[in-house]
Amino acid sequence: MQAFCARRAGRSARRWPFALVALLLAAHAASLLAAPGDLDSGGFNAANPIISDRGKALAKPGRSSAAPDNARGVAVQADGKVLVAGSCSGLSTSKLCVVRYHPNGTPDLTFNPNATQGGLQPDLQAGELIIEETPGQSLFGMVAVQPDQKIIVAGTCSNLTSGYYDFCVVRLLPDASLDTSFNAGGTTPGVATVAPGPFYNVASGLMLQADDKIVIVGSCGASLVANAMCLSRHNSDGTLDTSFNAGGTLPGTRIEAIGNSSYAMAAAQQSDGKLVVAGSCLNNANTEFCLLRLTTAGALDSAFGSVGKVITPISTDEDAAKAVAIQQDGKIVLAGACSTGGAFSTGAITRYCVARYNSNGTLDATGFNAAAPVLADRGKLLFAFDSDFDGAYAVFVQPDGKVLLGGRCRAGSVAGTGVFCSARLLADGSLDGTWGSGGKAIQPSIANERDLTYAAALQTNGYLLLAGNCYRGSSDAFCLARFEGGPYTPPACTLNIDGNMAVDAATDGLLIVRYLLGLRGAALTGSAVGSNPARNTAQIEAHLAGLLLAVALDADNDGQMLATTDGLLILRALIGLSDTALTAGAANSAHPNARNAQQILAWIAATHGASCLP
User: Fold this and answer.
1) Cα distance between residue 327 and residue 137, in whole Å
2) CB atoms within 10 A of CB 237
3) Rounded to whole angstroms, how far apart are CA atoms 262 and 256?
4) How does pLDDT run across 524-541, given as a tens digit for each residue?
5) C-alpha of 168 from chain center
6) pLDDT digits (tens, 9 = 90+) for 40-75
7) Fewest CB within a 10 Å sphere: which of 133, 333, 565, 576?
8) What share of residues in the chain are helix, strand, coil (percent, to 5)?
9) What is the largest CA-CA distance in the chain?
């Protein structure tokens, strides 16, 4: 048999290495020629034999080939693996489901490795999971990854008692098995449900706080005819955090009306721990961007807008905010879809739209689109691609201050079609000409000209992931595409403790002070980790331990490494202080080897990198 195989393989065996080399060279060439905004066909699913499928991945985890699978969330693990979550057909109804890919875009067969399914579709593949344990019908699955690499999946689940819907959240172990230590005292360990409002509670956004608490936002029926923004906050073990809105009707939740009816779509946490919740509200006859900000205790923040709330008209008709991001300077960026000429459902012209706010809730009219000829347009931006039905569903602030947007566009003028699209803005709100074509990029087709983006993730290396629903000859499938990002690199600074793309006193400086105080675990990292961190809690501790071992935190050179002196000096230096503002009350000036302010800054630059200093 071996001789037969050898003879049969003879000539092809000699040719195969050349074919393999050619394939690798082609992928490498594609990578070299790619520019920011281009599909990453040379690095993501690059070995797919169907050339048009490179740079993207599709999955159909549902039990029914006829029922649609709807992706609503995407997240990146610390090891670079990518999770896509949504809802798909389960045993008897729609359920939350998840697929996982390797960093190169191929299915990760270690995720739910023993998958079996049966039913109308061939067996569920390893790398795919249907979560049957949630109550009743389950919709709109979103996903996030905790620092210990456990997986949080949240969505909307039917309440079999009330007949309405509740928020629901599940925790999975890294291999996709249900983590029964999550909400261990609940009806179904591993699953938690909560109804912030009395009627229909529909989850639309999921985020993890820096202290690992879980925040779910959405819309809740304040009455049978009106919705309100609502949210729940859970401890990392799945129980409700009853310290949040402790005086409310249901501690751990909050429901807040803005305008006649309102819908929360996303949330972000500021470096001071406050929560910014973004969405849309019906304000008289028009739907407009709206925001609310909550203190760490869950109360409305009176220092923001009007008693914690902001309403902003962007276009003339419907303005739907879909995403929010916080800049390093504390400014708030909202993005979404805004229409003119009527409602979305009546043939309106819909555009990408963005607004930027100062930390007090006022529009940043002097820094964002500040040159707009109409004064009322300053602080906000409305722009089109080459179609009449465009909208942003994700926004990220890059370390270099550029604003990256991901969403959907109509494929030409054909109703019912769609393609993935993205845009990048400079810090002043103008389109960044280095992204795609003139700041905008359109992917012609992920599947078959009906591709709808609903979620996005920005990888630490700058790549943009867009996820959503794509149609390819039958019902909708999960689809994922990766696009070239950057170019930017992390700062060359060993004081960049969380390993993200920025050195920040409010995060990195605080981590150093806390570590020198002896804090570890959640007490070290809570509300002190920046956006898109490259290190989890254990890695942050290991990095700081290395600096301590190397005696690289003795800023004043007195032979000790103390939070009240060295930690404070480093934090002040990262803020940008110098001279006596840097050293007053913090340096051990009595020590014969003590450094002065100028020497401390020079030591930081020489020891940790010039990029550490602002």
Assistant:
1) 37
2) 15
3) 8
4) 998 888 766 889 999 999
5) 19
6) 999 999 999 988 889 999 999 988 888 889 999 999
7) 576
8) 15, 35, 50
9) 85
